[in-house]
Amino acid sequence: MDGNNVKPAGGCPVMHGGNTAMNKPVTKWWPDALNLDILHQHGARTSPMDPDYNHRESVKALDFEAVKTDVKALMTDSQDWWPADWGHYGGLMIRLAWHSAGSYRMGDGRGGAGSGNIRFAPLNSWPDNASLDKARRLLWPVKKKYGNALSWADLIILAGNMAYESMGLKTFGFAFGREDIWGPQTDVYWGAENEWLAPSENRYDDLETPSTLENPLAAVHMGLIYVNPEGVNGQPDPAKTALHVRETFARMAMNDEETAALTCGGHTVGKAHGRGAVDDIGVEPEAAGLEAQGFGWANPGHAGQAANAFTSGIEGAWTTHPTQWDMGYFKLLFGYEWELTKSPAGASQWAPVGIREEDMPVDPTDPSIRHKPMMTDADMAMKADPIYNEICQKFMADPDYFADAFGRAWFKLTHRDMGPKNNYLGPDVPQEDLIWQDPIPAGNTGYDVAAVKARIAESGLSASDMLATAWDSARTFRGSDMRGGANGARIRLAPQKDWDGNEPERLAKTLGILEPIAAETGASVSDVIVLAGTVALEQAITQSGYNVDVPFTPGRGDATDAQTDAASFSVLEPLADGFRNWQKTEYAVSPEEMMLDRAQLLGLTANEMTVLLGGMRVLGLNHGGAKHGVFTDREGQLTTDFFVNLTDMANSWHPVGEDGLYEIRDRKTGEVKWTATSADLVFGSNSILRSYAEVYAQDDNAEKFIHDFVSAWTKVMNADRFDLAV
Q1: Distance (Å, rounded) from C-alpha 525 to C-alpha 506?
Q2: pLDDT at position 7, please?
Q3: d(Cα 23, Cα 37) in Å, to the nearest integer?
């Protein structure tokens, strides 16, 4: 050690920080380095489960009714260490479920409740999630009892459902089937701020125009799931808050009625907690000491009294009877005038003027005491905004309609990121098909696949047209919320058929040939699209001198316009596709970073991303027929030429102008042999990607490359085949 000028630290035999810093040194020293970590998260090495563990099969063995009974019983089993408000944990469990699901955003499908990610940083320590660590700890006996079959992700949402049912609401339904992750989601961008609750201006081009909120974000501050309950930037103004509520919920694919239903129904029960000084509250879980054992936000003045709990700083219940599902929210909001006031913790909130004593809720600990109810700025927005006000009037006139509207919106909130109904398990799955579930009719599996392949091969379509159409159809899949993909053949419907990235003119020509084949053979259009890619790929493999079959499983169905929510599908439009060497326009984010994001959403590993890109280049699948990155004189054959020529030291690489383009020249003659983009050359410059590229450039791996490409291609084509899951 002395020879390296390293001074031992007290003789300690381990590297200080080296075993806890993970990969930070790479980005610390080279902040512009392409970080591939998001492609390696949540792998088998992080999971404590046995290699052959199948969560779906495990769930099917659950005693569903027993689980529900136990969770419902827990609601009124108040614990001394964290006593329940009014002896009922319903409000706390609803908040846990809501905040778990409420991190979802439609823009990239990330966040949400589908993986139990609220257990990990940063979500477990967001200011908005204060004291939800207690809620999860209250659920631990149930999780412990039912073990592997009951995921935290399912249990958290089930707790919210059982809370509502125990308070009188008939919920719309519930599905088991969420599978837990075992570490933080490193692929989710929560914002650029380095400060909790930083001013909203950091996220908007113009704070007065809510639609200018940075994409794909949906929350107005770092550390919140929605809006600031005290008003925009903490300044109460219900009319202005309403505009931000509308934008925030729209980014979760909620319309005005769903937004109003969730706001009013969510605040029909429970209370906010702010009876104390903010400065007295302890640090969040991730910052707490070992002795806290995962707890944060210590309440030094709690003293075992439910009324003394501190979370948001806002204090009070919204309704007279906070443990009952009723119409009390509307009775108070619209039955009284409200004035701006402060909570004991100094937070801005609204109080009723001249409220009758019988309309005041009792103290959560001492029923002999009554307190004024409160409303947040977001609640007052339901009254101030004319659209929300009109919806609330409709709810007030028909309580059953309100209960149904809320039940449906709550179901959507808590299940949106589970994908199609194929992923739903359990006895309470609603039979009704909902458009936000992206329904797809069952496909035919009884047709003659070989005959269809023969028809496709005789169609006169070029291999590049068939492969590009299959890829463009499948690449929309997002593992973040299980949306998109080839199943359904929505590439032939609006809005996908008109997306620039899909080359509408070429696509229309290709579909014009493939659709009649489907109609005449009994196959679905979606099957024929994928099968056309299969035919073209097998031809390219044969031309390269090998004989490898490409797996194909029939059974995809064709969705209709009526089954397609075009507005919510617009967010699936690719703005760039590094695999086809294309981007719609210039962005602040580099093409290779956007390619990495696409690969992660498709569920690809770094190696699969590498093999797919190299193969697609030599197959000639660039958007518009561009030649950048086509490092071969055998275009159309599935060869390793991309990797061989990328790593050939007989070549040199040179930037051209400021357009992000490069020339590959013969090192001796200076002759320009090929052109490239940064999405090509990153496979030679990034040390990790180069290590994969070198594998496929080796003389002994030409056949391995073909098998690996076929495997990765098939993975993308089948990414949305949830019907194939065991």
Answers
A1: 17
A2: 47
A3: 9
Chain position carrying tokens 């001394």: 80
Buried b (16+ CB within 10 A) or exposed e, 321-340: bbbbbbebbbebbeebebee
Residue 665 is predicted with a pLDDT of: 97
- The answer to whether 643 and 691 have CB atoms below 8 angstroms apart is no
Helix (H) or strand (E) holding 243: helix 238-250
Q: Which residues pair with 176 in a beta bridge?
A: 425
Number of H helices, E strands in the chain: 23, 9
Low-confidence stretches of the chain (pLDDT beneath 50)? 1-9, 18-23
Give pLDDT, residue 13: 66
Q: Contact 69/77 with Cβ under 8 angstroms?
A: no
- Note the pLDDT of residue 10: 55
In this structure, what is the dihedral angle of CA atoms 218, 220, 221, 223, given to the nearest 10 degrees? -40
Output the pTM of the full model.
0.95
Query: Residue 20 CB: number of other CB atoms within 10 A?
Result: 8
**How does DSSP assign 641-710, residue by residue?**
HHHHHHS-TTEEEEEETTTTEEEEEETTT--EEEEEEHHHHHHHHSHHHHHHHHHHHSGGGHHHHHHHHH
Sheet-wide strand order for 651-656: 651-656, 661-666, 672-677
Q: Which pLDDT score, from 0 to 100, does residue 20 have?
A: 46
Cβ of 714: how many Cβ atoms within 10 Å? Answer: 18
Q: Which residues of 620-639 are buried (b: 16+ CB within 10 A; e: fewer)?
A: bbbbeeeebbbbbeebbbbb
Sign of dihedral through CA atoms 593, 594, 595, 599? positive
Catalytic residue IDs: 99
DSSP codes, 302-366: -TT-GGG-BSSS--EESSSSTTS-SSHHHHHHHHS-EEEEE-TTS-EEEEESS--GGGSPBPSS-
Q: What is the DSSP letter of 46?
A: G
Classify the C-alpha dihedral 250-256-261-266 as positive or negative. Answer: positive
Residues found in the chain: 726
Burial of residue 58 (number of CB atoms within 10 Å: 0-12, 13-18, 19+) = middle
- What CA–CA distance (Å, rounded) separates 334 from 438? 37
DSSP state, residue 214: P
pLDDT on residue 11: 60
87: alpha, beta or left? (left if phi > 0; alpha if psi -120 to 50): left
Q: Angle of helix 504-521 relative to helix 525-543, nearest 10 degrees?
A: 110
If phi > 0 it is left, if psi is from -120 to 50 it is alpha, else beta; for residue 11 that is left
Q: Are 407 and 170 in contact (CB under 8 A)?
A: yes
Q: Which residue has the tokens 């846990």?
A: 96
Quick check: helix, strand or coil at residue 582?
strand
CA distance 332 to 381: 14
**What tokens does 50 get?**
């046995």
Over its C-alpha atoms, the chain yields an Rg (Å, rounded) of: 28
Q: Comparing C-alpha atoms, which of 482, 703, 456, 672 is closest to residue 572?
A: 482
